[in-house]
UniProtKB/TrEMBL annotation:
Domain of life the protein comes from: Bacteria
Any Pfam family the entry gives: Porin_7
InterPro entries: Porin_7
Keywords: Signal
The name this protein goes by in its record: Putative porin
Keyword Signal: yes
C-alpha cells in the first residue's frame, strides 16, 4: 500500500508540473527610421493554432512547438503609415509534420499593399511552399518555391532553409539559415542562445543582392523572455543600409 501511495504521489507531482498550450497570439509595435524621412511607428498582430496541444517538457519554451513537431495554421497582419505612403501586409499559412514519419510540408499566401498619397496603390500577392525532412532530432532541412504576382510583374524562385536546435553544454542553441535564388539572391543566417529555458539572446544577418540595385544587407540583434509559461516579451533591432527598425512583441499562449 505504501508503495502504491508513493507511486501515485510521484505521478501527481509530474502531472502538476506538465504544461501544454494549443494557441498563441501576439501584438507588436515597430518603429521605422528611414534615411531622409521622419521616424514612423507601425503595429502588427499574429496568431497560431496547433492541431494538438504542445507539451513544453524540458525544452526551451520558445522551441517547444518545433521540437514537438507541432502542425499548425497561422496568420499575421502588419501596418505602417509614413508621411507619403502606407504599407499593409497580411498572410495565412500552415505547417504540417507528417505523422509517423520525418517529413514536413508548409505553405503560405499573403498580400502586400503600398498606398502612395496622391498616386494610388500598388498590390502584389506573395506565396510560398516547401517540403522538408528531419534527419535527426531538432534538425529540419527544407526546399521549396517562393513567388510574387502583382501590379509590377511576377516572379518565382527556388528556396532552401535549415533550422537546428541542440544542446551546447548546459545551454540550448538554435541556428537557422535560408536562401532564395533568382533575379535577387537572398541569404540569411541567425542564431539564438538560450541562457535558460525562458530567456534567449540572438543575432542575425541578411543579404539581398540584385544586379540592378546592388546589395542591401541587414544586421539584427534580438532577445526573448518568458515571464510565465504563458506570457512572453521579445525585442529586436534591425540595422540596414537605408532603414533601421526597432520592435517589441508581447505574446500570450493558452
Amino acid at each position: 500500500m505504501l508503495k502504491k501511495i508513493a507511486l501515485f504521489t510521484a505521478l501527481a507531482a509530474c502531472m502538476g508540473t506538465t504544461y501544454a498550450y494549443q494557441a498563441e497570439v501576439g501584438g507588436a509595435i515597430n518603429v521605422l527610421d528611414i534615411d531622409g524621412l521622419s521616424t514612423e511607428t507601425g503595429f502588427g498582430v499574429d496568431g497560431t493554432y496547433y492541431f494538438n496541444p504542445v507539451e513544453v517538457k524540458n525544452n526551451p519554451l520558445n522551441e517547444a512547438a518545433f521540437l514537438n513537431r507541432a502542425s499548425n495554421v497561422n496568420a499575421n497582419f502588419n501596418y505602417v503609415d509614413l508621411d507619403v505612403a502606407s504599407f499593409t501586409t497580411y498572410g495565412v499559412g500552415a505547417e504540417y509534420f507528417v505523422p509517423n514519419s520525418n517529413f514536413y510540408v508548409s505553405a503560405n499566401i499573403g498580400s502586400d499593399e503600398i498606398d502612395v498619397d496622391g498616386v494610388g496603390s500598388v498590390d502584389q500577392t506573395t506565396y510560398a511552399a516547401e517540403v522538408g525532412y528531419l534527419p535527426v532530432t531538432g534538425l529540419l532541412i527544407a526546399a521549396g518555391l517562393a513567388g510574387v504576382d502583382g501590379d509590377t510583374g511576377d516572379d518565382i524562385d527556388p528556396t532552401l532553409r535549415a533550422k537546428y536546435v541542440t544542446s551546447v553544454g548546459s545551454y540550448d542553441l538554435n541556428v537557422e539559415a535560408n536562401a532564395q535564388f533568382g533575379d535577387a539572391d537572398v541569404y540569411g543566417i541567425g542564431a539564438d542562445l538560450y541562457l535558460d529555458k525562458t530567456l534567449s539572446v540572438g543575432i542575425a544577418y541578411g543579404d539581398k543582392s540584385n544586379e540592378a540595385f546592388g546589395t542591401d544587407d541587414q544586421f539584427t540583434i534580438r532577445a526573448k523572455k518568458f515571464f510565465t509559461q504563458n506570457v512572453s516579451l521579445e525585442a529586436k533591432a534591425d540595422f540596414g543600409d537605408d532603414i533601421n527598425q526597432y520592435g517589441v512583441r508581447l505574446g500570450y499562449r493558452f
